C-alpha cells in the first residue's frame, strides 16, 4: 500500500503546528522597490552544487528551487517544485509529482529530466560538490559518475521516482538543501565551467548583473511559480564591505541590511541607542559553540578528565565576552532543534568537583595541554577565558591561535588535544538532529581529515543513530526521543564541552517590511529575500 | 642601453621564477589542506580523495610545480579552486581598481611627503621642523586600519564630503588615496628633508644665492631637482610596501582591488589565486624597480646604466 500526501496533508503528517501549514503572506506587503545588502566577503559562486558560504547560501535559495522547501522564517518543510510526493511503505521509494508549468529563467519548462540531471550532476565526482555526501542514501550513489544516479528514475515528464539504498529520515530535508536545486542542463553546458557566474534556475529572482568583486544585482522573476512573491523588484548585493563600514552606511540610509550582522565592536553602542536598537532583529540559530576534547590523546582518554573540564568552564562568563549574544549550552543540540532534551542540565560549573574528578583520574596536580583556536576576534579572547578556567583546576592550556584552515587541518589530523570551535562551529545544514551527529560526533567523522575533532566513536551510539534514521518521517516522536537519548549518551562520555548557542543579531533599515523571522531565517540564512518588502 | 635592458629583463624573469618556486613551495608545505576547503565539512573521505586526484594535489611537489609552470608559460594561471573561475579573469577584473588606487596613493604620498620634507628642511632646527618630523613619525607608525576608519568616519560619515566607501567615481578615490598618502608620506618627508638639507649646503646653492637669486627660485629651480633624485629611486622600492598596505585600505573602503581577492584566497587556501596575485604583485614590483632604474640617468646624467 502506498500513501499519497497532498502538500498540506504532508505538513500535518509531520506533526507540526497546524498554524505553520504554509506561509500566510503579510497583508501589508507591497510590491516594488530595490534593496541593498552588503557582505564583507566576495561571493565565490552561485552554482547551487558548489556554493556553501554564508553570503551565497540565501542568494542561491532565491535563484533556485528544489523539490522541497521550508515555510519562510521557520524550520518546517513544505513542498517546493514537487507538488506532492509519495513514500513507499518500506521508506525506500520516494515518488515526486512535479508542478506543471514551472519555467527556468531561460524560459524553458522544468521537467523530471531536469531533476534527474541535477541530482546526477551534484553527485558526479567531476562536479566536486561539497554537498555530494548528503545524497549518500540514494541508490547508485557509490557508482555516481557522468551517467547520473541509477536510483533516480524519470517516470513521466512530471514524475520522478527516487529509490534509496537504506531508509533515510532526513531525505526530505536533503531534497530541500541548495545542493538539490534543479538546474537546466543546457545552461550548465553553455556556461562551459562558469555556471557559478551565470546561474539559471527557477527561483524568485534572476541574476541581472555581476561586476566581479563589487556588486551583484538580482531582478524579480516575473514568471515565478509561487503567486504573489517576490515583493521586491530587485536586490543589490555590495561585496567587499567591512561590517563596521556597512553599519555606518546603514545609519546613513544607504544600506538596508548588513549581511554580516552587527560587528561585535559596535554592538553595545547600537544597543544603547534606542533608535538603533529598535531596528535590531534577534533570532535563534541552529548553532552550537563547543570545545572538543580529543579522546585518543592522553589524558583526555579518561572520561573523568573530560568531565572535569566540562565542570571547570564558566559558560556564563564566556557568554559575557560576546556581549550576551548567546545562551549557555548544556548539550550538543541547540534549543530550537527537534530532539533537544528539555530540562537536561548538563554538567554544573563546579571547580571543586572538577578538581576532585582530576584527582580521581590520578592527576591531582593537573596537566599541560594545547588549546587550538581560530585567530579572529572574539575567539582568542574566549580561549583566554577557557585557559583561565582550566588554570583554576591546575590544567595549563597553551593557546595555539591559528588561521581557520590550519585549525581545521589540526582537528582533522587529530593532533589537537583541545579545540575551541568558534568561527568553525557547527551550524546545521538542515533542521534535523542527525545533522549534528554523524559528521562531528559519529564514527564516520572520526577519521583522518574528518570533522569529528574529538575522534569520539561509540559504535553503540552509531547503531542507535542508524536505527533512529531508519524511519521515513523525520518528525516521528519516537525518532526524536531516540535522538535525545543519543545526545545524552554522548554527554555521559563528555567528548565535548558544549559552551553556548549563539543568537543572531542583525539590523534592518527603517523602510524594510516583513516579519522579523524573515531577517533571521534559520534556513534562508541570513535573509529570506523572497518575502521581505519595502514599506 | 638595449644590452642593459635585455640583461635586466632576463634577471627579472629569473626573479619571478624564483618567487613562483618559493611561493608554491610554501603553499605546498603549509599545514592547511586546500582539498578540505573545497570538499567542505560534509564530504566523505572518498569525495576528498577524488577531488585531490582531480586537482593533481596527490602528486609530488615537483610534478605539481612543473605542471603549474608549464601552464604559466602558456599564460594560463588556472582556475580558482573555490570559485571555479579563471584566475586571469578574476585578477584582470580587479587590477584596474588596484592600479588606479596605487597611482593616486603614490601621488598623494609624494605631494604630502615632499611638501612636508621641503618645509621641514627649510625650517631646520626650528619648531616647525620638529612638528613635521614628529608628524611623519606618527604617520609611519599609525595602524592602517585605524587611519582608514578615522578618515572615513570624519570626512564621509560626519561631514558627508565623500561617499562612505565604494568604487567608481573620483570622489570614491579621494579618501583611500589620501589614507595611503598619509601612511606613506612619513618615509618620503624624512628622506626629502635630509636630501634637501644636504643639497642646500652645496656650493652651487651658495653660488646661486650669491648671484642674488630669490630664495623661492633657489629652492625650486636649483635645490629641488637635485634633492628629489634619491626620492624617485625610492618609489620603485616603495611599490612593494605599498602592495602590503593596500590590502587593509581596500578592505576598509570596499575598494574592489586584488588585495581583497588575495586576502580572501589566503583564508581559504585557494592556491591558484594566491599564486596569481603573488606573481602579478611581484611583476609590478620588478617593473617598478626597472622603471626607477631606467629613468634615473634621464634625471641625473651622472648615473650610468651598466
Give the overall average pLDDT of chain B: 88
Mean pLDDT of chain A: 91
Classification by helices and strands of chain B:
mainly alpha
* Chains forming the largest contact: A-B, 52 and 54 residues
Radius of gyration of chain B: 24 Å
Helix content of chain A: 25-40%
Taken as a percent bin, the fraction of beta residues of chain A is 15-25%
Beginning-to-end CA distance, first to last residue of chain A: 50 Å
Radius of gyration of chain A using CA atoms only: 24 Å
Number of strand elements of chain A: 22
Which residue ranges of chain B are poorly predicted, with pLDDT under 50 across at least 5 consecutive positions? none
Describe what you observe in this structure.
The complex is a heterodimer of chains A (535) and B (306). Chain A has 535 residues and is of the alpha+beta class. In chain A, 26% of the residues lie in helices and 20% in strands. Mean pLDDT of chain A is 91; it is low at 1-20. By secondary structure, chain B is mostly helical. Helices cover 78% and strands 0% of the residues of chain B. Chain B has 13 helices and no strands. Chain B has helices spanning 2-29, 34-39, 45-54, 61-73, 87-122, 127-141, 144-158, 170-200, 203-210, 215-227, 229-253, 258-267, 271-299. The mean pLDDT of chain B is 88.
How are the elements arranged and paired?
The complex is a heterodimer of chains A (535) and B (306).
Chain A: E1 3-5, H1 7-13, E2 34-39, H2 54-63, E3 68-70, E4 77-79, E5 82-87, E6 93-98, H3 112-123, E7 152-156, E8 159-163, H4 171-174, H5 185-191, E9 205-211, E10 215-220, E11 234-239, H6 243-251, E12 257-258, H7 267-272, H8 274-277, E13 280-284, E14 287-293, H9 303-312, H10 315-321, E15 326-328, H11 351-360, E16 368-374, H12 379-391, E17 396-402, H13 404-413, E18 418-420, E19 426-427, H14 459-469, H15 477-493, E20 496-507, E21 512-513, E22 533-534
Parallel strand pairs in A: 2-11, 2-12, 16-17, 16-18
Antiparallel strand pairs in A: 1-5, 3-4, 5-6, 6-8, 7-8, 9-10, 10-11, 13-20, 14-18, 14-19, 14-20, 15-20, 21-22
Chain B: H1 2-29, H2 34-39, H3 45-54, H4 61-73, H5 87-122, H6 127-141, H7 144-158, H8 170-200, H9 203-210, H10 215-227, H11 229-253, H12 258-267, H13 271-299
Helix pairs in contact in B: 1-13, 5-6, 5-8, 5-11, 5-13, 6-8, 7-8, 7-11, 8-10, 8-11, 9-10, 11-12, 11-13, 12-13
Amino acid at each position: 500500500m502506498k500513501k499519497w500526501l497532498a502538500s498540506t496533508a504532508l505538513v500535518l503528517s509531520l506533526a507540526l503546528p497546524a498554524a505553520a501549514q504554509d506561509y500566510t503572506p503579510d497583508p501589508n506587503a507591497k510590491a516594488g522597490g530595490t534593496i541593498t545588502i552588503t557582505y564583507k566577503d566576495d561571493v565565490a559562486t552561485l552554482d547551487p552544487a558548489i556554493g556553501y558560504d554564508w553570503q551565497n547560501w540565501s542568494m542561491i535559495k532565491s535563484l533556485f528551487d528544489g523539490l522541497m522547501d521550508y515555510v519562510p522564517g521557520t524550520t518546517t518543510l513544505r513542498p517546493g517544485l514537487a507538488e506532492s510526493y509519495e513514500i513507499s511503505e518500506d521508506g525506500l521509494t520516494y515518488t515526486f509529482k512535479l508542478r506543471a508549468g514551472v519555467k527556468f529563467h531561460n524560459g524553458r519548462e522544468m521537467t523530471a529530466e531536469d531533476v534527474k540531471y541535477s541530482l546526477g550532476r551534484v553527485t558526479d565526482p567531476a562536479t566536486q560538490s561539497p554537498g555530494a555526501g548528503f545524497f549518500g542514501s540514494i541508490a547508485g550513489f557509490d557508482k555516481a559518475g557522468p551517467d547520473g544516479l541509477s536510483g533516480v528514475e524519470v517516470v513521466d515528464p512530471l514524475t520522478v521516482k527516487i529509490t534509496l539504498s537504506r531508509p533515510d529520515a532526513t531525505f526530505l530535508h536533503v531534497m530541500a538543501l541548495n545542493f538539490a536545486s534543479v538546474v537546466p542542463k543546457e545552461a550548465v553546458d553553455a556556461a562551459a565551467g562558469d555556471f557559478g557566474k551565470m546561474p539559471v534556475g527557477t527561483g524568485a529572482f534572476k541574476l541581472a548583473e555581476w561586476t566581479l568583486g563589487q556588486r551583484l544585482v538580482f531582478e524579480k522573476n516575473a514568471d515565478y511559480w509561487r503567486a504573489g512573491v517576490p515583493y521586491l523588484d530587485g536586490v543589490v548585493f555590495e561585496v567587499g564591505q567591512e561590517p563596521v563600514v556597512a553599519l555606518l552606511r546603514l545609519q546613513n540610509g544607504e544600506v538596508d541590511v548588513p549581511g554580516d550582522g552587527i560587528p561585535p565592536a559596535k554592538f553595545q553602542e547600537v544597543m544603547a541607542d534606542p533608535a538603533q536598537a529598535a531596528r535590531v532583529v534577534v533570532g535563534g540559530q541552529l548553532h552550537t559553540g563547543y570545545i572538543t576534547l580529543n579522546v585518543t590523546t592522553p589524558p583526555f582518554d579518561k572520561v573523568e578528565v573530560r568531565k572535569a573540564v566540562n565542570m571547570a568552564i564558566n559558560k556564563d562568563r564566556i557568554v559575557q565576552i560576546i556581549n550576551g549574544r548567546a545562551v549557555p549550552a548544556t548539550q550538543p543540540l541547540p534549543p530550537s532543534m527537534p530532539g533537544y532534551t528539555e530540562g537536561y542540565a548538563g554538567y554544573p560549573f563546579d571547580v571543586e568537583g572538577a578538581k576532585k574528578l582530576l584527582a580521581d583520574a590520578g592527576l591531582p596536580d593537573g596537566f599541560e595541554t594545547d588549546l587550538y583556536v581560530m585567530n579572529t576576534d572574539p575567539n582568542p579572547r574566549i580561549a583566554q577565558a577557557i585557559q583561565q578556567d582550566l588554570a583554576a583546576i591546575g590544567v595549563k592550556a597553551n593557546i595555539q591561535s591559528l588561521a581557520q584552515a590550519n585549525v581545521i587541518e589540526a582537528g582533522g589530523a587529530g593532533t589537537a588535544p583541545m579545540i575551541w570551535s568558534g568561527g568553525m562551529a557547527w551550524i546545521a545544514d538542515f533542521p534535523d538532529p542527525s545533522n549534528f551527529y554523524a559528521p562531528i560526533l559519529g564514527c564516520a567523522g572520526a577519521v583522518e581529515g574528518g570533522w569529528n575533532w574529538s575522534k569520539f566513536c561509540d559504535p553503540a551510539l552509531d547503531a542507535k543513530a542508524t536505527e533512529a534514521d531508519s524511519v521515513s518521517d523525520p518528525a516521528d516522536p519516537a525518532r526524536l526521543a531516540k535522538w535525545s537519548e543519543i545526545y545524552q549518551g554522548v554527554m555521559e562520555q563528555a567528548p565535548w564541552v558544549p559552551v553556548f548557542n549563539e543568537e543572531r543579531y542583525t539590523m534592518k533599515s527603517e523602510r524594510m517590511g516583513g516579519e522579523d523571522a524573515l531577517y533571521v531565517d534559520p534556513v534562508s540564512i541570513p535573509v529570506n529575500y523572497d518575502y521581505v518588502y519595502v514599506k | 642601453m638595449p644590452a642593459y635592458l635585455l640583461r635586466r629583463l632576463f634577471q627579472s624573469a629569473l626573479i619571478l621564477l624564483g618567487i613562483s618556486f618559493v611561493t608554491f613551495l610554501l603553499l605546498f608545505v603549509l599545514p592547511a589542506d586546500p582539498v578540505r576547503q573545497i570538499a567542505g565539512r560534509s564530504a566523505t573521505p572518498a569525495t576528498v580523495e577524488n577531488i585531490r586526484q582531480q586537482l593533481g594535489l596527490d602528486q609530488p611537489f615537483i610534478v605539481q610545480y612543473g605542471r603549474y609552470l608549464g601552464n604559466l608559460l602558456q599564460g594560463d594561471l588556472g582556475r580558482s579552486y573555490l570559485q571555479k573561475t579563471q584566475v586571469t579573469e578574476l585578477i584582470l577584473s580587479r587590477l584596474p581598481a588596484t592600479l588606479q588606487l596605487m597611482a593616486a596613493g603614490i601621488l598623494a604620498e609624494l605631494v604630502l611627503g615632499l611638501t612636508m620634507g621641503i618645509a621641514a628642511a627649510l625650517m631646520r632646527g626650528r619648531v616647525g621642523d620638529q612638528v613635521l618630523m614628529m608628524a611623519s613619525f606618527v604617520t609611519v607608525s599609525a595602524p592602517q586600519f585605524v587611519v582608514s576608519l578615522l578618515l572615513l568616519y570624519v570626512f564621509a560619515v560626519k561631514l558627508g564630503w565623500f561617499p562612505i566607501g565604494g568604487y567608481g567615481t573620483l570622489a570614491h578615490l579621494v579618501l583611500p588615496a589620501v589614507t595611503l598618502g598619509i601612511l606613506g608620506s612619513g618615509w618620503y618627508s624624512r628622506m626629502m628633508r635630509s636630501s634637501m638639507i644636504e643639497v642646500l649646503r652645496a656650493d652651487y646653492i651658495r653660488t646661486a644665492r650669491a648671484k642674488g637669486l630669490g630664495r623661492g627660485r633657489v629652492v625650486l629651480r636649483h635645490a629641488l631637482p637635485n634633492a628629489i633624485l634619491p626620492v624617485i629611486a625610492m618609489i620603485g622600492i616603495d611599490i612593494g610596501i605599498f602592495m602590503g598596505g593596500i590590502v587593509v585600505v581596500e578592505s576598509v573602503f570596499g575598494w574592489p582591488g586584488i588585495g581583497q581577492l588575495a586576502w580572501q584566497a589566503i583564508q581559504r587556501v585557494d592556491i591558484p589565486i594566491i599564486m596569481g596575485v603573488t606573481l602579478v604583485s611581484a611583476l609590478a614590483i620588478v617593473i617598478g624597480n626597472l622603471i626607477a632604474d631606467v629613468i634615473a640617468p634621464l634625471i641625473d646624467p651622472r648615473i650610468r646604466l651598466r
